[in-house]
Amino acid sequence: MSTAVARRTGVAVRCVNVVQIYTTAGGHDVVALRGVNLDIRAGEQVALLGPSGSGKSTLLSLFGGVLRPSAGKVIVDGHDVSRVSEGELGRMRSGTVASLLQGASRNLLPYAGAVENIEFARRALPTAVRRSLPSAVELLDRLGMRDLAGRPLGTMSGGEKQRIAFAAAVSSGAGLLLADEPTSQLSHDDRDAMLALLHLVNREFGTTVVLVTHDPEVASAMPRSITIRNGRIGSEGRHGFDFGVVDEDGAVHLPDDLADRFPAGTLVQFEQTPDGVLLRAVDETGAQE
Ligand SMILES: Nc1ncnc2c1ncn2[C@@H]1O[C@H](COP(=O)(O)OP(=O)(O)OP(=O)(O)O)[C@@H](O)[C@H]1O
């Protein structure tokens, strides 16, 4: 994976039939992802939504090269995460992908300032790459945070710390930013400031942005939102509309309001009409219910 130059273009991600199974300490298997097919183009901004335990963080860990899939392929920047060497995975984690973990404190050295945190975040990059990047102060300036450069972290608000955590995450010039609930625990103003930063790196550097959120307003601020349900792609939102997504095996998740009307096991009939396809519940004799 090339880290020879400071990256200024986004990274594409592709999932082909991805299955992730965890084995618990007690020896039980937990199926977290059950066949995810997904294409995220370079430079896209995507929100991952879904109930707790649906598999969002697992997907982020696979994109970030922290996990390898149990089955299927995760292709990041043209490299198959399940096949690359440990060394290449390490280079991917330090140069290709930037991760903003949930909660600013998990991303930052608490007793250092903004500049030291950015320099620390860049420590694993090859010297040539580090030299090609803007200085920490220049980066803070370009992100509109010049005023935070000299302030110790201990004097900053939660929103300011989160913005520094963001600056440190993107400071490697990575082409893919993965952010796990980057706006949780923030005020509305700080949330909007974080969204503005995500849009800024996407616009200025072409960075692909993938974030996990439980906040529908944050998801609607992204051009594309993907809802994960029970380890599969449930639906997609684009331009304010929700769409079902046909899976490899032809399955489509019903939207929540329809799922209530068609409980599991319901017999359904499909009828082609001039306007599309009609879905109708029938009884065991095939008669309309
Ligand atoms: N290390 C692990 N060992 C065992 N099971 C795990 C592990 N990590 C996650 N799981 C399980 O995998 C499933 C998916 O978890 P994941 O954290 O990806 O969901 P999530 O959608 O991110 O949830 P949340 O919104 O609560 O963060 C859950 O059933 C979870 O309990």
From TrEMBL:
<dbReference type="Pfam" id="PF00005">
    <property type="entry name" value="ABC_tran"/>
</dbReference>
<dbReference type="GO" id="GO:0005886">
    <property type="term" value="C:plasma membrane"/>
</dbReference>
<keyword id="KW-0067">ATP-binding</keyword>
<dbReference type="InterPro" id="IPR015854">
    <property type="entry name" value="ABC_transpr_LolD-like"/>
</dbReference>
<dbReference type="InterPro" id="IPR003593">
    <property type="entry name" value="AAA+_ATPase"/>
</dbReference>
<dbReference type="InterPro" id="IPR003439">
    <property type="entry name" value="ABC_transporter-like_ATP-bd"/>
</dbReference>
<dbReference type="GO" id="GO:0016887">
    <property type="term" value="F:ATP hydrolysis activity"/>
</dbReference>
<feature type="domain" description="ABC transporter">
    <location>
        <begin position="13"/>
        <end position="255"/>
    </location>
</feature>
<dbReference type="InterPro" id="IPR017871">
    <property type="entry name" value="ABC_transporter-like_CS"/>
</dbReference>
<keyword id="KW-0547">Nucleotide-binding</keyword>
<dbReference type="InterPro" id="IPR027417">
    <property type="entry name" value="P-loop_NTPase"/>
</dbReference>
<dbReference type="GO" id="GO:0022857">
    <property type="term" value="F:transmembrane transporter activity"/>
</dbReference>
<protein>
    <submittedName>
        <fullName>ATP-binding cassette domain-containing protein</fullName>
    </submittedName>
</protein>
<dbReference type="GO" id="GO:0005524">
    <property type="term" value="F:ATP binding"/>
</dbReference>
